[in-house]
Design goal:
alpha+beta
Length: 131
């Protein structure tokens, strides 16, 4: 008997929420020591990129633009926050970690305030994201 073909599983992008409340709720659930970092990054993304859509899926926060898809993903772990840029490989310079989607691992508020982080956020708005 022949084997059935393997199923291809593709993650589906999240559906946009009605507003920022989903992200605010997610932020409250992050580790207390990371909350100032996550709050700073969230505010920085919102100040830097106008017209955002928001979502939370898989315990991750997503920031996107209509017609461009999800451009940034924020993931809070126990001791760090990963800021993922779906088109990061196209940035100049690209974030230091990953392939294709590139990311930066942020462990302190000082690292979150680095001007390079704001530059990557601004560049994210100029490239198509995940849709």
């Amino acid at each position: 008997m022949a084997k059935a073909p393997a199923r291809t599983s593709k993650r589906k992008p999240p559906e946009p929420a009605d507003g920022h409340a989903a992200i605010a709720d997610w932020l409250e659930g992050t580790m207390p020591g990371l909350q100032p970092i996550v709050a700073h990054l969230d505010a920085l993304v919102r100040r830097t990129v106008p017209g955002l859509q928001y979502a939370v899926k898989w315990k991750k926060a997503y920031y996107g633009l209509p017609g461009r898809g999800w451009i940034i993903e924020m993931v809070a772990y126990d001791v760090s926050v990963n800021l993922v840029f779906f088109a990061g490989a196209k940035f100049d310079p690209p974030p230091p970690l990953g392939e294709g989607s590139r990311y930066v691992k942020i462990r302190s508020l000082e690292e979150a305030r680095d001007p390079g982080v704001r530059d990557w956020i601004a560049q994210a708005a100029d490239h198509p994201g995940w849709s």
